[in-house]
Amino acid sequence: MSAERLHKAKQQLIGMLIAMPVLYVLFKIILPTLPSNPMLKEAFWAKKVLADASYDLVLIGDSRVYRGIDPETLQTQANLKALNFGFSSGGLSPEIISIAARHLQLNGGKCMLIAVSPNALLKASQSNGHYHQIVDLPEADLFLQSKFYAPLSALHAYALSDFMKLRVGEQYFEDFKLNTGFVYSNHLPYDSAAALYQYRQQLSKNTIDTQVAYAFIDTLCSWQAKGFKIALTRIPTSFKMRQLEDQLTNAFVPRWLFAAQRKGLSVLTLPIGPFHSYDGSHLDGASAVKLSKVIGDSLSRIWPLQ
Question: Is 117 left (phi over 0), alpha (psi -120 to 50) or beta?
Fold first, then answer.
């Protein structure tokens, strides 16, 4: 390479290095904020599976957990540093309990709050496909997503559909709390019946292995015998969703919770009324924070403040 071409290449490189932060700032100022940023979403999941073992409490369950319980509110109410370890279609199995327990500090609270739903007890959910889909990514991908995707998220390309949804008033708001595993969520327009058809199909086509489900209670009792604090609950939904789930499963969750309580596990009974769901299944952000205060108060009563 000639000296002249080398000089030009250096100038171009310097120009690019100067232009990148300028373009970054322009993107941040000019473009509207995405209601749900795909790069932040990938950073969120990578950080969750790579979380360290510094927590007093892990929250375990499906999407109703990671959209429904705010660890920051729990810490304020119950003085427990919490990690929301919920995943989409998360199943309740011995495997996921063992994985979640790795994030608890041994000299900390050693607490687990497990949210039970019909979906989380289905045979199809037991493999915890979403968790494994994330954790089985190449290590380099997880590193990049966890370290660099959040600061670079403003550069994410906007699709035409994003602007069309903004124009007609349809928006799915997702505020990813990268350090706690919680997603403050809202959807416009609200439709508390939106998820009913999906859940009817899912619960009609899939079944709960009751023998496996009751054996899971014994698994939890064994963790409790090892010094871990276990509490169970059921996240509020719309009245119609609760009615549908109990109808299609012969009210299995209430019966399962009763059996767990008889074996010495703590159960938090949460009301439905004060909370609002944007699709019938998941709480809106404000209701999630309100619910977290209720849960925090309940935990502080059954578990002394740390």
Answer: beta
